[in-house]
Amino acid sequence: MVKFLRNIFAKPSNLESLSSLIMEAEIGHTGEIAVYLRDRARLFSKNSVRADAVEQFSSRRIWDTEDNIGVLVFVCLSKKAIEIVADRGASNKIQSSTWEQICLEAAEIFRNEKDSQIGLEHAIKRVGEELRRAIPGERKQNQISDQAVFI
Length: 151
Prior knowledge:
Layout: H1 2-10, H2 12-25, E1 32-38, H3 49-59, E2 70-76, E3 81-86, H4 88-91, H5 96-112, H6 117-134, E4 149-150
Parallel strand pairs: 1-2, 1-4
Antiparallel strand pairs: 2-3
């Protein structure tokens, strides 16, 4: 099943679609959105998906944006789990309960839809909406890649 999900997300047309969606979601605010997908939860790891997301946020320097407004959308395909980690510039203006709600919505879609990409797309759109509401404006430059990344 995980290989099947990876194959769906890894298709060039789907990756291009996600990239376009990330670019669209970044319009109208100064935030930066990164999307990382992991096939499986780390073997022999006691870390939760949340801990893994926080580690990726830190090690991939999603926090290293001019205004501290990077947001990571992290998906563990094997668990059909999604986490959102936001830097202090975004988390100061958007409550953690909002990010949690987006994750719950996406997880519900993951469980109910035949196409798991729909849940991820929903999360990306909602993150963009929340950033537009909380920190409107236009970015000076793109500081984080708009490509979804498999790790």
